[in-house]
Design brief:
The structure is a homodimer. Chain A is an alpha+beta fold. Chain A has two domains: 301 residues, Aminopeptidase (3-Layer(aba) Sandwich); 118 residues, Alpha-Beta Plaits. Helix content of chain A is 33%, strand content 20%. Chain A is built from 16 helices and 18 strands. Chain A has a six-stranded mixed beta sheet, sandwiched between helices. In chain A, strand 4 and strand 5 form a beta hairpin. Chain A starts with 14 loop residues before the first helix and ends in a 5-residue tail after the last helix. Chains A and B meet through strand 10, helix 8, helix 9, helix 12 and strand 11 of A and strand 10, helix 8, helix 9, helix 12 and strand 11 of B. Strand 11 of chain A pairs antiparallel with strand 11 of chain B.
Chain lengths: 492, 492
Amino acid sequence: MRPLASLRSAPVTSSAEHSEAGHSTAERDFVLAHLDDLHADLDAWLRIPSISADPAHAPDVADSAAWLAEALRRVGFPTVEIWPTPGAPAVFAEWPSADAGAPVALVYGHHDVQPVDPLELWEHPPFEPTVVEGPDGPELHARGAIDDKGNVAFHLLGMRAHLAATGRDTPAVTVKLLIEGEEESGSPHFAALLRERADRLTCDVVVVSDTGMAAHDVPSAVVAMRGLADAEITLRGPAVDLHSGSFGGAVPNPLHAMAQLLAALHDEQGRVTLPGFYDKVRPLSDRERELMARVPFDEQEWLDGPAASRVATGEEGFSTLERLGARPTAEVNGMWGGYTGPGHKTIIPAEAHAKLTFRLVSEQRPEDVGPQLRAWVEANLPAGIEAEVHTPPGGVSPCSSDLDSPAMGALLAAIAQAWDSEPSEVLYLREGGSGPEADLVEALDAPLLFLGAGLPTDRIHSPNERVLLPMLHRGAEAAAHLWRELGQMRLG
Amino acid sequence: MRPLASLRSAPVTSSAEHSEAGHSTAERDFVLAHLDDLHADLDAWLRIPSISADPAHAPDVADSAAWLAEALRRVGFPTVEIWPTPGAPAVFAEWPSADAGAPVALVYGHHDVQPVDPLELWEHPPFEPTVVEGPDGPELHARGAIDDKGNVAFHLLGMRAHLAATGRDTPAVTVKLLIEGEEESGSPHFAALLRERADRLTCDVVVVSDTGMAAHDVPSAVVAMRGLADAEITLRGPAVDLHSGSFGGAVPNPLHAMAQLLAALHDEQGRVTLPGFYDKVRPLSDRERELMARVPFDEQEWLDGPAASRVATGEEGFSTLERLGARPTAEVNGMWGGYTGPGHKTIIPAEAHAKLTFRLVSEQRPEDVGPQLRAWVEANLPAGIEAEVHTPPGGVSPCSSDLDSPAMGALLAAIAQAWDSEPSEVLYLREGGSGPEADLVEALDAPLLFLGAGLPTDRIHSPNERVLLPMLHRGAEAAAHLWRELGQMRLG
C-alpha cells in the first residue's frame, strides 16, 4: 500500500460531486441514494470493540459477529450462519443465484480489529466513529473504519445496489461471504475452518476485500501478496555468562557471532544469501515491470510519510515498488542477548538470539526456508559457536491473481466503472504483506481477486485509523458492478 | 586468573606439612602457631552478609565495617576509623613505624561481597562458613571467603607475625589499610573518597590484596590489570516501528545496521578496528612474553573449566594468556532491538542498541575510547541510519607494577619465602579484569604491588565460593615478610 505524490485537482468530496463527475449508472444511483444506510451500518458496527487479540474483548468479537449476521439477513441473504471456532467466530452467508450455471464468488474479510494502544494518540475515541472533513472528502475515523469493517460493509450496500439496478431477485452470481474474527490475531483457526467447512465454501472465484488502492483517484487492484516464513536463531558460546575482563579477547562471544551472521544475511547487492533462496523466484517480465512502473509513486513523499525513513534502500536493480511487492526479503525483526538493563554488566553472554521473517514471492514456499536457513547458518557459523534454528511449521505462501483470467477482466471492468475510468487504466498493485489469502487459494482451489477501498494513508493498525467515505461509496458501486460482470462471464 | 594443568605431586594439605615441607622462619612459626585466630576471625566475619549491591543489606555492610575496625584495634593498630561515604562505609587503619624515614605502605581491599544468587546452587549456606577437605587441602566455603575477606583477614595475622618475628613494637614500615565497602558495586564513591582523604592516604607503595596466584603451588604475583571503557550505541532507522511486510526490503533496518557495524568491530586478524585504538599500546617485549610463557597453562583444561568454551580464539599472533592479560579488547556485552517476546512480530524496529566494553592496556586511556568509537561509528554507518554513541565519563585506566622497582623486589622475596621458592621463580600474572586499583595509582601517585591468595578455581562471584586455607596461611606469612623486606629497602 503506497501513498501517491500527485492528487487529482478535483477531489471527490461528496456524493453530489461523485455523481456529477462521472457517468450515471443504475448501480451508482442506488448507492448514492442509500449512503445513509451504509453510514448508519458503520456507525453501529464500529462501536463494537471487536479486538481479537485481547481475551477481555471476546464478548465484543462475538457481538460483532452477531451484528454482521443480522445485517446480512436484513440485506436479504437467505443463509446466514455464525461459525464458531476454538477462538473467535466467523460469519458465513450465502445468496444463491437463480441462474443455472451461475458462477460462485466467495468474499473474504474479517470483522475483528487491531488493538488501539496507544490510546492517548487518538484524536477521537477509537470506538466512537467521527466524521472529519479532510482534503479529499469526508473521513470516518474509528478503529476498523477500513480494516476491515469498512471493506466488508460496502458489500452490504453493494449487494442491494446490484439487485436493484439489475431488477433481479437473486444475484447474477451465487455470492458467499466468509468474514472471519481472528485475522488481526494471525488467523490461527482459519485454515482448519476452511478444511472443516470445505463443502460449504466451494466457489469459482475468491474476492478478498481487505486491501486498498494506490490513491483515492487512482483506480487500482492488488494482484499479489507476498508469502511469509519466520525463524528464530539461537547461538550458544560459553556454557555460562563469563566475566568479560577475565575472559574477554580469548573466547568466542555469541553476540559477535550473531552480528557476523546477520551481517552476512545480505550480500553487497542486497540479495539474501541463503542457498537456493531465489531458485523459485520467477523473474519479473517486462510487462509486469511496465505495469508496476505506471503506479504513481513519489519516493520522497513515501519516505517522509508512511516509511518514516531517511533513505530507500534494498536489492540492487529493482525499484522501491518492486522491492516492496515483487521481490523476496529477509528481515531481522528482533535481536537480543547479554545484558540489556541500565548501566553496564561486563559479561560475555552464553547466548544470543534473533527473530527473522522472510517475505516470499512467486513459487517460493515457506517450508523451503527452514532447510535453506539451517544450511546457511551451518556454513557461516564462527568456530566455537553452536546454533539452533527454529522454524515453526506453517507460514504463508505467496499468492497472486491471474492477470489474464476472465474474472480479472470482470474486476477491472467493475473498478473502472466505479472510478470513472477504463479497465486498461486500472493499475496493478503488489502487496508486500501476507495474509490468510493464500490459505483460501489452497483450500478452495479458486482464483483470487482483490477488491478493497483502503488507502495507504488510512493509518491501519495505528491511532486515528480512518476511511475516506467516498472510497467506500465507490467500493459499494464496484461490488455491484462486479456481481453483474461476473454473471456475464463464463468462468474457468 | 587461570587454572593450571599440572599440580605438584606433594600438595600443601595442612599446616603441619606446610611447616615440614619448607624452611622454618620466625614469621612462619608464628603464623602456624596462631592459625586458629585467623580461622576464628574468618568464621565471625564471613557470617556477616555484607552484600553492597542490595540496599536491604546496608546494615550488614555497616556491621562488616564495624567488625573489621574492632579486629584491627585488637591487632593493635593505634588508628582505626570508619569512613562514611554516600554509600557503604570504608575502614581506614594506620600503624606508624617508629623508624625515621620508614616507607609507608597502603593495603587496599574490600569488605563487601557479591550477591549469592542462585542460592539453590550452594552446597553449604553462603553465610555459614564450612570447612571442606579438598584435594589440595582444607577449603573454607563461604561468600567472601577469598573475595575479599580472606585476602584482608590474612593481613591481621600477618601484622602480628611481623611484629612477633622481628621483636618490634611498631612495624618496619608504616602500614595503612583502606578497606572499602563498595567494590562489588563498582566502587562508585571510591575515587571521591581518595580525593577527600588524600592527606591521610599518602604512601610510598600500594599493596592491593584482592587478587591471587596461578595455582596453590605456583608462587606468582599479578603485575598488571587491564583498564575499562564502556559505551552504548543506539542506532535509529524509521521514526516508528514499521510493518515488515509493507516496508521490508526497501527501508534500512537498524538491526541489520547494528549487525553490520558490530561485525566490523574486529578485522580478520581479530584486531579492534577503532582508528587509533592501538596507538598507545606498548608492544610486548621479549622479556614480557617470555615471562608470560612461563606461566603453566593448559588451554584445553582452561576451556573445559572456567572458560566453559569450545575453542580459544582472538587476536592473531598472541597466546591465550597474552590475549587475556596483555592485549586490549572490544566486547559486546549486550545487544537488543525489535521484538523479543514469544512468537513473532513482523516489524522493522525503529531502534537497535548495543552495550560494549573495551579492556585497555599499557598507556591506553578510557577517555580516548569515546572519540575513537564515535569516529568509527560515523565511518561505518549504513545510509539512512543515525547513531548515538554514549560513553559515560570515568572508566578505569590500566595499571601495572614496575617490574624493576625495589618494592617489586621486596614482594618477590616475600612471596618466595612464604611459598618455599626463589624470587626468580615467582611468576608474573596479568589480570584481564579492571578495578579501582587504577584510581589508587592515580590518586596516590605510588607504585603498585599485588599480594593476594586467591586461586582461579575459587569460584569468586559464583555459588560455592571458597578459599584454600593453606593459601591464606602462606598469605599471612608473605605479608609479614613483605613488611620486613620493605623496611630494609630505600624506596622511590
